[in-house]
Input
Amino acid sequence: MKINVLTLYPEMFPGFLGYSLAGKALSEGKFSFNVVNIRDFATDKYKSVDDTPFGGGAGMIMKPDVVDAALKSVYKSGPIYYLSPRGEVFRQQTAHEWAKLNEITFLCGRFEGIDQRILEKWQIKEISVGDFVLSGGEPALLTMLDAVVRLLPTVMGNETSQYDESFENGLLEYPQYTKPQNWEGYQVPEVLVSGHHAKIKEWRLAQSLALTKARRPDLWEKYPDRNKYERKVS
Output
């Protein structure tokens, strides 16, 4: 998977993606970063990448000619996404869709954003990490890419473990425990040390259902088997 990143802060990549499982995958060539410094495409002696907005207002806007030149230098195929609070919210399903791509390009904005004409010319999609404002697109993108990279084939040590995690099956993950069995008076639930795999599976599902209904009613309302389990978690 080839990941193109256009940014004013190339030193932020790969960031924490250079460590742990993602870092190992990067060193093994399972995905790659092609990081482009947008400022390299500024044409004046001051390397200006922004200017004041037409119509007035606070802040500065990234210039369309500079961003356009940066895109032309790297783009070959695949979708282009602009990190923006106006965008569709990134979800686990988005991560799965991106993980299937051969190439994807991201544009990280700064200041008050980029000229709208760039989005229109390049048919760029907007994507958001959530309903809050960051200083730029880079930290949001790193978070999204962490979710994507771990879904690439053979990146995770246990290929089946991801399917029990929160959001993978529409539910929050059940509680987890490890040794010691008795820690400061807190006991591991008996069913988990019973060796009865069917009962363990049933307990974990019940926990996931109850947690999802209590903590994320928005997910619970969308869960396809909600009516089947409604009475069990009431």
Observations:
- The first strand starts at residue 2 and ends at 7.
